[in-house]
Amino acid sequence: MKLSKRLELINQNISDNYDHIWDCCCDHGLLGAKLLTRNVSAHIHFVDLVPTILDKLTQQLIQFFPPTDGKTQWSVHCLDAALLPLSQFQAKKHLVIIAGVGGELTAKLIQQITTANPTHDIEFLLCPVHHTYQLRTQLIKLGLNLIHEQIVTENKRFYELIHVSHRALAPLSHTGASMWHATKNEHLSYLKKLILHYQKTASTHSQNTELLAYRALLSSLLEYENKN
Ligand SMILES: C[S@@+](CC[C@H](N)C(=O)[O-])C[C@H]1O[C@@H](n2cnc3c(N)ncnc32)[C@H](O)[C@@H]1O
User: Fold this and answer.
1) Kind of pairing between the strands at 20-24 and 157-165
2) Domain count of the chain?
3) Residue 13: CATH number of its domain
4) Is the CB–ligand 1 distance for residue 16 below 6 Å?
5) Bigger pLDDT: 225 vs 30
6) Tens-digit pLDDT profile for residues 19-36
7) Which ligand 1 atom is at minimum distance from the Cα of 98?
8) Residue 211 is part of which domain span?
């Protein structure tokens, strides 16, 4: 099973350190299936809204990862990811992955999941499509801190991998503090693309805030590059 570069990078950022891993908005389920082939010790939960996709996925999982002693190491949930049944697994360590959906939806899902499960030990591994500034703003509001962040380039598209939890200690920033490298041309291209986007759409106060923040970041990266 060949994963896309983006999914492979998400896979590489998943340690064998969880009791439950939730592949939310899983669609084809490739990422969760990869984790099963890796023999991670966690139970893998596949979550999506579309029954037909999940029926097909279930058949494939039964074929490739059949039950042992009547039990599978995976479950399939036809469910809105906002409603993850985490309360069934108190005192367990959870990794919730949300990838391949918009930043606004990702933000909404995390807000609902954290509000419904205030005492759970949850890490979130996120790789949204667009609107990362708004997503990061929401994560900061919810008190989530940074474990790791990274820029991913795939088919000339840019993504941000954002790994956060309440237990982490590093503050999360609105534009991403540790993922930018002034010497990487693709990072500068991504930043210029963001600035161009907000230049075109900045009519509201909030979008101006984003534009100013990304411009300041570009200046500081270029300044760093000139000095070194
Ligand atoms: C483009 S696929 C992403 C697949 C995979 N996660 C990836 O990154 O390649 C988006 C999937 O999200 C699912 N989805 C959208 N909103 C959802 C929600 N609220 N709860 C669960 N699944 C959702 C859709 O049904 C669709 O299968």
Assistant:
1) unpaired
2) 2
3) 3.40.50.150
4) no
5) 30
6) 999 999 999 999 999 999
7) 6
8) 180-228
Does the Cβ of 100 fall within 6 Å of ligand 1?
yes
Whether 24 and 119 share a structural domain = yes
Tens of pLDDT, residue by residue over 121-147, are 899 999 999 999 999 999 999 999 999
> Same domain, yes or no, for 144 and 201?
no
Same structural domain, 113 and 69: yes
- Determine the distance separating the centroid of ligand 1 and the alpha carbon of 63, expressed in angstroms: 23
Same domain, 48 and 117: yes
Closest C-alpha residue for ligand 1 atom 9: 100
Please indicate whether residue 99, judged by its CB atom, sits closer than 6 Å to ligand 1.
yes
